[in-house]
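User: Hi! I have a protein structure encoded as tokens and I'd like to know what sequence might fold into it. I'm fairly new to this, so please keep things simple.
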């Protein structure tokens, strides 16, 4: 089983408000459709929320829990927007011959202080076994301490990546960059040095942007790749176990 995450920076216009990037959605769905025909069928697909999540979390102040009625309405609206984005992506996958099925993590998982404490993965394994492509996404999840909180697609990657043969993250840059140069490999011992090069994403990424991503990946205890999904052929190469331009995190 492979875990593939596609960033909200690819599927949406991240600077917008509830704005999908249909061109990118179609381009990636086409690549995955081709892969499906070629027999790459062992993928748990995860995607970020991009402009269907981050701006709403900021607008309703959901980052440190959900307590008030206003926040509850905001959490419900955020969940609904994430589901809408997922439906758009899944529709494109279906059109390209991939029997993809979206399952909102809100119904399967529970957090404790913003970290996943429980996740019922049975529905996902069942879909895989039956020959479907399960699709998960960043979402608002119940939280035993905070009422409800954000669970990023990146955190889902660190949960499911533990059991995967390969973990790939597609985003809108070539990988981790330092002074404009691609860092080919990140590990515990050069993390601090590379950290100096993380800048705040141009548009508020409530789950920590690139730095948050690397922290999740280092916790995985297994190698994973960050690559530019705006060049779908790079993601395709990684799915086939081939080398391509990317950052290896291990
Ligand atoms: N040193 C760095 N190298 C590469 N990207 C960086 C660096 N520092 C900050 N970034 C930013 O991190 C962004 C990628 O992380 P981000 O979380 O925004 O994307 P994503 O995971 O695709 O989206 P989402 O979180 O919505 O799924 C890049 O677009 C870039 O602007
Ligand atoms: Mg992010």
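Assistant: Happy to help. Inverse folding works backwards from shape to sequence: for each of the 250 positions I chose a residue that suits the local structure. Here it is:
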């Amino acid at each position: 089983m492979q875990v593939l995450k596609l960033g909200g920076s690819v599927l949406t216009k991240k600077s917008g408000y509830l704005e999908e990037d249909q061109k990118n959605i179609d381009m990636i769905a086409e690549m995955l459709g081709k892969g499906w025909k070629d027999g790459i069928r062992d993928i748990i697909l995860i995607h970020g929320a991009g402009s269907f999540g981050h701006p709403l979390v900021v607008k309703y102040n959901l980052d440190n829990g959900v307590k008030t009625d206003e926040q509850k309405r905001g959490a419900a609206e955020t969940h609904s927007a994430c589901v809408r984005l997922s439906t758009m992506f899944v529709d494109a996958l279906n059109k390209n011959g991939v029997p993809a099925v979206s399952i909102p993590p809100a119904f399967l998982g529970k957090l404790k202080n913003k970290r996943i404490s429980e996740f019922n993965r049975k529905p996902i394994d069942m879909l895989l076994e039956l020959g479907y492509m399960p699709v998960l996404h960043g979402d608002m999840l119940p939280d035993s301490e905070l009422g409800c909180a954000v669970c990023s697609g990146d955190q889902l990657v660190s949960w499911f990546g533990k059991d995967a043969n390969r973990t790939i993250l597609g985003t809108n840059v070539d990988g981790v960059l330092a002074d404009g140069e691609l860092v080919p490999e990140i590990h515990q011992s050069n993390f601090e040095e590379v950290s100096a090069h993380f800048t705040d994403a141009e548009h508020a990424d409530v789950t920590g942007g690139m730095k948050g991503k690397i922290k999740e990946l280092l916790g995985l205890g297994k190698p994973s790749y960050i690559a530019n999904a705006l060049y779908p052929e790079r993601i395709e190469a990684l799915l086939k176990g081939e080398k391509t331009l990317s950052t290896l995190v291990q």
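A useful reference point when you look it over: The domain at 2-249 is CATH 3.40.1160.10 (Carbamate kinase). Feel free to ask if any position seems puzzling.
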